[in-house]
Amino acid sequence: MISVEKDSLQQQMESFLSRFRQLNKAFELNDQSYSEMEETIGQYTAFIVHPDHEAAWGAMPEQTMHFKELAEDLRQEACHCVWAMEKHRARAWLENRPDIADYFHNIEDCIEAEFQGAGMNKHSKVLMIGSGAFPMTPLLIQRRTGAQVVGIDIDAEANRLAVQVLQKLECREIQIEQLTVDQLSFTREATHIIFASTIPEKFDLLQQLHDLTNPDVIIAMRYGNGLKSLFNYPLLEVSPALWTLSEQVRQPGQVFETALYRKSAAVTAFSSARGEFHGSC
């Protein structure tokens, strides 16, 4: 296995940052850079999941301020590129152009793995926060389980494209709303809530959701730690009085992982009930 030096890792990060900045600027001007964006996203995905690169990241000493700023800037630009590519993918599909980046194949593989951990079925009511312009997660959930799914996103253009995609598919079982979690009545009905990994404020929203949701709701928080944090916002500490991390769906070789949270009160009640049951046997 080829060893990757720490300096080489940082140089590759700086190279990707420069490329993403140029591509994002070009895409905003004329929407003609998508082919190069697809290629770069594919290369970046391979860079993120490469085991040698993860080992080099783990071997680094305490990160300098410059390195932390580099990582944050790179994540922001990479996420911006993904948002742009989702819009391009939606437009391309609506125009019957089948082009698709390897990144999206990777995402679809990650979504498949989430189904097993979150326990969704036809009776579930699923809220997707950050559903995007091409609503892959809502579509796959509805197709696999028959669950009722609502997607929300703060991006008006992404919502408009997502609605057009669903209309073309004649999929009436999925709703797309441009509402916040506190404005959406479905929030309290949801049995499962999924966060896109590219939402910076997802842990602020998680805290807000505690008082807006039912006692047994399951939160599926997509994240990336370590090297994967260059493509996803990482896990943060949560108040143990509000939420308990019940499971982590780890996916080596995939671009993000998933943390499952339950309300701490519900976890305590379940543990107490199980103890009483075993005690009476």
From TrEMBL:
Keywords: S-adenosyl-L-methionine, Transferase. The keyword Metal-binding does not apply. The keyword Transferase applies. It comes from the Bacteria. GO terms for biological process: nicotianamine biosynthetic process. One of its GO terms (molecular function) is nicotianamine synthase activity. This is Uncharacterized protein. It comes from Paenibacillus algicola.
